[in-house]
Amino acid sequence: MKAEDIGSLGIKGFLDHEEGMALYRAARGASPLGPCLEIGSYCGKSTLYLGLGCRESGGILFSVDHHRGSEEQQPGQQYFDPELFDGASGRVDTFRLFRGAVEKAGLEDTVVPVVARSETAARMWSMPLSLVFIDGGHSYPTVFSDYTAWMPHVMPGGYLLIHDLFPDPGEGGQAPFYIHGLALASGLFVEEERVKTLGVLRRHPVGFVPDEVRDRRDW
Predict the structure, then answer these.
(1) For tag attachment on the chain, is the N or C end more exposed, with fewer CB atoms within 10 Å?
(2) In whole angstroms, what is the distance from residue 104 CA to residue 121 CA?
(3) Superfamily for 3-214?
(4) Which pTM was predicted?
(5) What pLDDT was estimated at residue 94?
C-alpha cells in the first residue's frame, strides 16, 4: 500500500494526514542512514507512515510502546476509548489493534514492536538512530524523560520529530513544545519544517560549525 492510502484503513489515532506524510518523508530520507524509532504508537497510525517510508528505503522501524495507553487515555480521562479497554485484564490494551494495522499494511518485516516502557527500552540502548519520533505520554516528566533518553542516540544528520506542539497553552499541553525548545537551544538541531503540530528537526552533520563560532577572529 501507499502512504497516501493510510487514511482509508480507519486506524484509530490523533495524527493528522499531513503530519503523517511528513513522517513518511522523513523516514524515507533517514532510513538509509540507519534504523528509525518511534516512541508511542497507540494503534499504529504513525507506525504505518514511518514504516512505509522505511520500507521504501530498505530500512527498519523500532516501535516502542507499552500499549497500556498514556495518562490521558485511562478510564475517566479525556481521551479514554472504551473499545480499547480489556475487561479481562482491567486495563487499556492497544497492542491487538496495533498488530492488526501492521499486518494490514504488510509491514511485518519492517516494523519491530518493542512492547515496553520507553525508559526501560532506552536503558541499555546503544545503537545510533537515523530518526527518533517522540509521541508518547504528554506529561512533563514523561516527555522530558523520552527526550533525554533518546535524543542522544540521534546520529549526525539524523532527524528528531516531536508531535503535538502547541505554542498557545490554550490549545494544548506544553510539554512537547518545551522539549522542542530544548532541542533547538542545545545547538545540535535545526528545524527543517513545521507541519501543523509536528516539528521536524535535523541534527547537524559532523564538522558543522555554528555561525557565531565561524565568525570569531581567532577561528
Answers:
(1) C
(2) 26
(3) Vaccinia Virus protein VP39 (3.40.50.150)
(4) 0.92
(5) 94
